[in-house]
Amino acid sequence: MDIKSLQAISDAAIDETNDALREINLSLHNNPELMYEEHHAHKILTDLLEARGFDVERGAFDIPTAFKATYPPRDGAVSGRTASINLEYDALKDIGHACGHNLIATAGLAAALGAAAAIKKGKINGRIIAFGTPAEEGGGGKIKMIRAGAYKDLACNLMVHPMSDRSHNNAYSSTMCGSELNIEYIGKPAHAMAAPWDGVNAMDAVTILHTAVGLLRQQIMPSDRIRGVILSTGEQSAVIPERARARYCVRSASLARYRVLKQKFVNCLEAAALATGCELRTSWLPAYWDIRTNDPLADRYVHHVQRTDETSVFRSVLEQKYDRDCYSTDQGNVTYVLPSIHPTFVIHSPEGSVHTREFTAAAATDDAHRRTVAQGKAMAAVALEVLVDDAFAAEVKAQYDAMDLSAADDPFVQ
Fold this sequence. Notes:
Blueprint: H1 3-16, H2 18-30, H3 39-51, E1 55-58, E2 67-71, E3 82-87, H4 101-122, E4 127-132, H5 141-147, E5 156-158, E6 161-164, E7 177-186, H6 202-216, E8 225-232, E9 243-252, H7 255-276, E10 279-284, H8 295-308, H9 317-322, H10 331-335, E11 340-341, E12 344-347, H11 357-362, H12 366-388, H13 390-401
Parallel strand pairs: 3-4, 3-5, 5-11, 6-12
Antiparallel strand pairs: 1-2, 2-4, 7-9, 7-10, 8-9
Helix pairs in contact: 1-4, 1-12, 2-4, 4-12, 6-7, 8-12, 12-13
C-alpha cells in the first residue's frame, strides 16, 4: 500500500474519533493538574488508548503519571522501525492550561490513533508508541524518562505545541537551554545595633549576588538570560539576617553556550558567599536543553499540515529558523537523544500569549481543537513515512548523526 493510501486511512480514523478527541480535550482543560499530579489525565488517555488496542503500561518509568502505549502490542512479531509521539498534559498553578497542554495531548492522541489504524490496515511492519510525558512545567518529566531508557532504539519522536497568533507557525522552532535553581545563603544572626560585627549577613550575600549578576549582563551574549527574585532576607531590622533565599533562572541559546553562562553565574554565587562569609546552598532543577530540530522530519511535517489544514501558513525555512523563542522545554533534551521535532502552531488568542488566562480560554475553543486535530493528522503522516520509506528514514537518521551533541556529555549541564 502506498504512502498516500496509508495517510488517507490515518486521516479517516482520526476524523471518525473526533468526538472522543474533543471530549478528552475538554476534560483535560476542565480538570487542570500540576506536575506529577496528572492522575485524571493519565487515566482518561490510557483508558482510551487501551480500548483502541494499544498495549498500555501505566505508571511507566517509575513515574506514576507517565505512560507508554504501544501498537501493535509488544507480544506481536514486528521487526521494522518504531516511531514515537509525546503527549504533555500538566497545567500551570492558578491559570490551568495556559500553555495548551490539553491540545498537545489531543494532537498526540490523534496521531497515535491515526497511525495505528494505518499500521493495522496497511499491514505495516513497524510500531507507533505514544508516550505520556508528565511535568513539563518545571518537573523535567521527559528527562527522567530519558534516564530510564524510554527513547532508546526509536526512529523518531514527534510532538507539537500551540502558540498565540502573536507568534507564527514554525516547524523549525528553537528554544533556549537553561535551568532554575533555589539559592540559600546562611550566615549568623547578631544585634544589628549593639554588635553587628558578631554577625554574618546573609542579606548582604544575596544583595552582592543580585548586583554581580546585574553587572555581568554587560559581558554576556544578547541571547543569554539571567533572571531572579529574592524570596526572603529576614524580618527584623535590628537583627543581622541569618538566612536569605532566592530563586534564579539561567538560560542561553544552546547547551554549549549554557555551559559557559552557568559557570559565570556560579562564580557570582560563590563570590557572594566568599565576600560575606556565608555558607552557600543551591538546588538546581534539571536543565532543559535547546531544541535540535531534525530538518527532514520538519520538512515533511510542513507538507502534511498544509495538506490537512489549508489555513496553515508557514514562512520560509530561513525565516522559521531565524526565530529564537525565549522559552525552554524538556523536549529539547529528547532532541539530543533521537531525531525529533517540536513545531509550534498558532491558535486564535488575540488577548494573550501562552501562560496567560486569556490563552487558557483560547485553548478550549472549537477552532483550537480543529487546528489541533490537523496537527495530529500531520504527525501521524510523518510517522508513517518514517515506518515505510527506507530512504526517508535514512535521511532522518543521517541528519541526526551529523549533529555535534558532545556538549551533552558534560555532567555540569545535566
